[in-house]
Amino acid sequence: MSQSKKSIIFDIGGVLAHDVWENLLLNEGGIAKKYNLDNSTLEETGKKLWEEFAYKSSNNFNDLEREYWSRFIDEINFSINIDELISLTDNFIKPVEGMSDLLNKIKEKGINLAICSNNNEFWFNRQSKKINLSDYFEQKKIILSCRFGYDKLSRNFELFKETVKALGAQKEECILVDDRIESIAKANEYGMTGILFPSHSKFGARYLNFLFETMKIL
């Protein structure tokens, strides 16, 4: 496979940006500590809301986000101000260290780039603005579960197929960078190459750069 045919597909949460939900809920400055809430209840609520909002497309990001947090408050049965919750999330939407530099390096090489993310519209909207995703990714090459009604683990690879189609590439030419082993396994099953990103290491970008150099991509 020649260098000119390489296409790289990035996940967002845990790869390009810190996983908002995981950190917002459970780290030292998160909801669990701030409001003295039970971790297992929050995790269960997070999974339930994921199923409800992951496939809900909307152009009204503010209303969708407020609906989300209203449902969250109902589920945990605890009185929290929605605006305070939304404000708190700003602390957890930030780029993974070194990834902007790596994306610039990849972009300079003219490599075909796409995003494939299990995401909802309001998280993506805020992530996109905070870490300047439009500097690296064309809009038509941003493939989200909420826009297509499937996630990366769908039986017939629908989200991967949409991503490959948007890239105008062959699946064998595509590399998925993701922090979830199940997504990597599914990508491999589909016929793409998968690279597992070490989301809990501050050296993930350096590791990925080394792999790309070793693979003669950079």
Explain how this protein is built.
- With 218 residues, the chain is of the alpha/beta class.
- The chain folds into two domains: 136 residues, Rossmann fold; 73 residues.
- Helix content is 49%, strand content 10%.
- The protein contains eleven helices and five strands; from the N terminus they run βααααααβαβααβαβα.
- It has a five-stranded parallel sheet with strand order 3-2-1-4-5.
- β2, α7 and β3 form a beta-alpha-beta unit.
- α3 packs antiparallel against α4 and α4 packs across α5.
- The longest helix has 16 residues.
- The radius of gyration is 18 Å and the shape is globular.
- The model has no long low-confidence stretch (mean pLDDT 91).
